[in-house]
């Protein structure tokens, strides 16, 4: 393993650095400027976006860089005297900085900023949270209550997106809803839809999910890996009978299946990033008057409140916890087919929550 070493006069920290490959190294601890705080990271989850970046499906503008944006930690210091009240608080942070002045930023929907979409913690341009410390803007912070432990809090970012996606469900529960894709986001949305009282079916590629979902009374249909668009006419999901369909597979075949499953004037909610050309028939959208919605983020405050309500058990969604020093191994596990969320823990951090 290569150890990256920089300036040794500053206080150093351990970090998982990406420069085409992932390596554990020691970098200077970042220093918070005006409007910023220094956060000691407790846990950072490996997300689909992280995998997309290291595997070349999403751009990484700066190298070397620290990835990771789905984190929780404790504020230790600030470069802003007016932010001292944050010191000692456990927080999650909205990774997108935005311009701060446009309509989207003022609505606290910085991931939709039309001026500066690129600057986001851990997304290829600014250092993220696979490190002992991270610097974040005060405006981006959401306090985590003691009743939400670190592991749950590390789900705040995907839960925020899932809540935003679920907002698009047509009609009050119970609705018949299909989720296409049984990865992290697909399962998260499925469990949250089920908790909201909807009747959910899942179409996925991992038969091992059947038991996990069956315990919650959710039906699972398997689509064989490596086949595209292989819905049979007798399959429930092929009849175009669902009022709302969530596309969480990120695959062209998943998108095609999702489109075919939505009933006329139904809604198709696209949650996954599609790196390639989808190649689905747009005419089907027109013929069936399907509403298309994209979801790219959501309110972290709403997510923390949701986690506090204890409607979601995150335990079945975690495949492993590794120390930051084994971060590259964590990524290897996360890449493996069928793996759910992998959490990287900062061994030197205080473990917060109950
Ligand atoms: Zn803006």
SSE order and pairing:
Blueprint: E1 12-18, E2 22-28, E3 36-46, H1 48-54, E4 65-66, E5 70-78, E6 90-93, H2 103-106, E7 133-137, E8 141-143, H3 150-153, H4 156-166, E9 176-180, H5 184-195, E10 199-204, H6 209-214, E11 219-222, E12 242-247, H7 252-261, E13 262-270, H8 282-287, E14 291-294, H9 300-308, E15 318-323, H10 327-335, E16 341-345
Parallel strand pairs: 9-10, 9-12, 10-11, 12-13, 13-14, 15-16
Antiparallel strand pairs: 1-2, 1-4, 3-5, 3-7, 3-16, 5-6, 6-8
Helix pairs in contact: 4-5, 4-9
The structure holds zinc ion (ZN).
Order of helices and strands: EEEHEEEHEEHHEHEHEEHEHEHEHE
Classification by helices and strands = alpha/beta
State the shape.
globular
From the N-terminal CA to the C-terminal CA, the straight-line distance is: 36 Å
CATH topology of the largest domain: Quinone Oxidoreductase, Chain A, domain 1
What's the β-strand tally? 16
State the helicity in percent bands.
10-25%
CATH class of the largest domain: Alpha Beta
Strand content: 25-35%
* Small molecules (ligands, ions, cofactors) in the structure: zinc ion
Low-confidence stretches: 1-8, 225-231
CATH superfamily descriptor of the largest domain: Medium-chain alcohol dehydrogenases, catalytic domain
Mean pLDDT: 90
